[in-house]
């Protein structure tokens, strides 16, 4: 009972501490939309980094955060999986004729918009699958960690509830898919890269993924036809195609981890008998 109370309090204080930090930290006044967005992403990021360090030190560094393991391998894996995820989804939707590109826009300081999206992605992953996830997994089990992290991720994308059940399911399955990647790699790098490619390319370049309204998009993606297929007003994130892609990739990483665990167990047994 004591452990339940302590873990529950840690979870609440961690999340609320981050919320309070974000709410009291002032975004510098600027007439530049891109600079305002940069600060609007940087402040929550700095808050989650600070809160994570504080709680990690309070726990006497006992919680393994799995932030930067095997950086080169995980960056490459993240790029490949992210490209497959977004590329296959957009490719299928293009082939069935529910999306197409119609013109492009000029974006001033494009690199800073991309950097802002990257910072936002790191912040989200550290909040949802960083300290809290590893603390819950360490104190209880992976099931509870997955439930809480998925709940937080879904809450952070609350706009999906207004768009319908399929959009909510896509948010949930996306979270489960990225969590499966985290469990397979034991590093937050690959989930960050995958999530960033989805937002950076899918939203800022292709214009087919929803982000904050002030984010620009390089191309104009026209979405038409059946809303279940196309995603409708939710863009491709409301599409059933993305839902099945999430499920396929999630199951792929779950199976891959189980196979690797079996292989490692066999190698361990072989070493003992040798």
Structural class: mainly alpha
The share of residues in extended strands comes to: under 5%
| Helical content class | over 70%
Helical segment count: 11
Q: Which term fits the overall shape?
A: globular
Rg is 20 Å
* Biggest sheet features: 2 strands, antiparallel
Strand neighbour order, sheet with most strands: 1-2
Elements, N to C (H/E): HHHEHHHHHHEHH
Low-confidence stretches: none
Number of strands: 2
What's the mean pLDDT score?
A: 92
Number of domains: 1
Distance between the termini: 45 Å
Can you walk through the features of this model?
This protein starts with a helix and ends with a helix. The chain is globular. Helix 3 runs parallel beside helix 9, helix 4 (110-129) packs parallel to helix 5 (131-139) and helix 5 (131-139) runs antiparallel to helix 6. The model has no long low-confidence stretch (mean pLDDT 92). With 274 residues, it is mainly α. It has eleven helices and two strands; from the N terminus they run αααβααααααβαα. The protein has one domain. It has helices spanning 2-24, 33-58, 71-95, 110-129, 131-139, 142-156, 159-163, 165-185, 189-205, 227-230, 240-273; strands spanning 99-104, 219-223. The longest helix has 34 residues, at 240-273.
Summarize the structure.
It is built from eleven helices and two strands; from the N terminus they run H-H-H-E-H-H-H-H-H-H-E-H-H. By secondary structure, it is mainly alpha-helical.
Main traits of this protein?
single chain; mainly alpha; two-stranded antiparallel ribbon; 11 helices
Secondary structure elements and pairings:
Layout: H1 2-24, H2 33-58, H3 71-95, E1 99-104, H4 110-129, H5 131-139, H6 142-156, H7 159-163, H8 165-185, H9 189-205, E2 219-223, H10 227-230, H11 240-273
Antiparallel strand pairs: 1-2
Helix pairs in contact: 1-2, 1-5, 2-4, 3-9, 3-11, 4-5, 4-6, 4-9, 5-6, 6-8, 8-9, 8-11
